[in-house]
Structures are given as structure tokens and as C-alpha cells.
Amino acid sequence: MLHKLIIIGSGPAGLSAAIYAARADLSPIVISGHTPGGQLTQTSAVENYPGFPSIQGTELMQKIREHAAQFGTKFIDASVTKVDFKTKPFKIWVGEEVLEAQAVIVATGATAKWLGLVNEQRLQGQGVSACATCDGFFFKNKAVVVVGGGDTAMEDATFLTKFASQVTIVHRKPEFSASKIMQERALKNSKIKVKYNSEVVDVLGQDKLEALKIKNNQTGETENFACQGLFVAIGHKPSTDIFVNQLELDHGYIKVHDITRTSVEGVFAAGDAQDPRYRQAVTSAGSGVMALIDTEKYLESLE
């Protein structure tokens, strides 16, 4: 069966596209991926999504999914294993099953790079975060640590000074890789302190973050550093591996032209898979709608 539209990904971008597509009678199929609902399902309270002063991430994504289903969106709760965008109709593999579509919206998102510590994963949402702009508000008058040395780490540290009583940047090298202007902006802030040549080797706390075990990689000395927040700012990895040699990528992110159009006519991209800058649920949702409007115009051109 040839489908008009298949949406790969079920975060805010994919589901927002699905809502608009279903209302436009495009009978969209959403392939949910290995994390149905996207990164928001791995956060606790969300307080910056319009219309919801405070809501759990999983609950918010469930409501958006129900909204899409209400208008007739069909879901396949599995992951795409392969695509063929070189010929039309486009082919998408889900295991052994092959689906065909006239148009595709890619909204596979991105995942934060973590330190790889067991307790770091256990305490995500309980003091451990990878999104300062999402969660900074919860750390008013608290001591927090930012791990990283690039522009994102500098930006996150500076942003967190609006809320935290103290921000400590922990970096494994003797100097930052961030641009000079970003470094200067962070280092001149009296709330920001720095631990160079240092690494977080454990996250301490039973039900919430209480301290970090930090090791100086020059002397080998360790300390238990008391804090209530850990923000990991060592980068993100877009979930685009299956699109290598199928779509034009830029450092792993899908390269878009004219806002949502990819290098393949009829394939559009939305959300964090093509956005290395904003990475917010609401901007992802908006880009999903833009991708759908462009997709709808493309499908009309085929008639």
C-alpha cells in the first residue's frame, strides 16, 4: 500500500506534523522510534510548554499523541531500520516490513551526550540534566555544576547564574575550547568558578543529587563536591545514522534548505534532527508544523 505521508519520529515535531496532516486528510503514519515521545519522556516536570504551567514530560507527550490519534493518525511503535530515498516512491523498512510513501517527514530528534555513569542515568530528572534552558528554573539559590568546555557549556553556565547561587564549570582539560568571547563572558561572572583538569567520576545521592565525586586527572586526587544540580554540556548527537548516504548531513544534522526541505525532493525534516541550535520542545513542534505545510504543498504539486 502506498501511503501519502510517513512521519519518522514521535517527539513534539513528529506529532505536531501528524496533527496537522491528519486534519488535512493525509492519513499520516507515524513510526514512533526506539523512544516514543522523544526526549521529553526522559524529563520530569515541564514548565515551559505553552498551555501547561507544569506537567510531567511523559504525560505531555501522551496528550499530544492522543491529540494526533483523535484525528486519525496511525502509529507503528517500532524503529526504522533502513530507508531508500533515492527512488520514488520512498521506501522505509521497519524490520522486515517495507512501507512506501509519496512524502516523508524526518523528525528523529537528537540525544544528549552523557558521561556514561550509572548513577548519572539513575538520577536524571532528580538533579541531573542536559538542558539548562529547560531545567535551570528548578535550581533557584542552589549550587550547580556544568560539565564541558565548549560554547554550550559557557552559555549554560552563564544562563544558570540567573537562578543558581553558585555555578562551577568542570572541564577535563587545562583550557576551554569555547570561543574567546563566550569564555570571557562566563569567566567575568562572579558566580562562576572553574575546575580545570577535572572529571566527574560519580554522581552521589539516594533519591536526588547531593554531591559529585570529582577527580583531578593530573594529581589523581578526588573530592566529594556538594551540589544540587549537574548539567552535562558535552554536546548532542542527532539520531540520523540511517540517513547517511540518503540525505545531505552537516555534522550529523540533516541539512535543510528553505526551512524544512532536505536534499531530496519530497523528504522534509523537522525538530532536533535538523536543529543544532534551539533544541526546545516548542520550537520542535513549530518546525513540525512548518514541515507539514511544505509537505502538503509538495503533495498537491503531484496531483
TrEMBL record:
Cofactor, how bound (note): Binds 1 FAD per subunit.
Cofactor(s) essential for the protein: FAD
GO BP terms in the entry: removal of superoxide radicals
UniProt xrefs under Pfam families: Pyr_redox_2 (PF07992)
EC identifiers of the protein: 1.8.1.9
Keyword Iron part of the UniProt annotation: no
Entry superkingdom: Bacteria
FAD/NAD(P)-binding domain span: 4-288
Record's catalysed reaction(s): [thioredoxin]-dithiol + NADP(+) = [thioredoxin]-disulfide + NADPH + H(+)
Record flagged with keyword Flavoprotein: yes
Quaternary assembly: Homodimer.
Family: Belongs to the class-II pyridine nucleotide-disulfide oxidoreductase family.
Name the UniProt record assigns to this protein: Thioredoxin reductase
Gene that encodes the chain: trxB
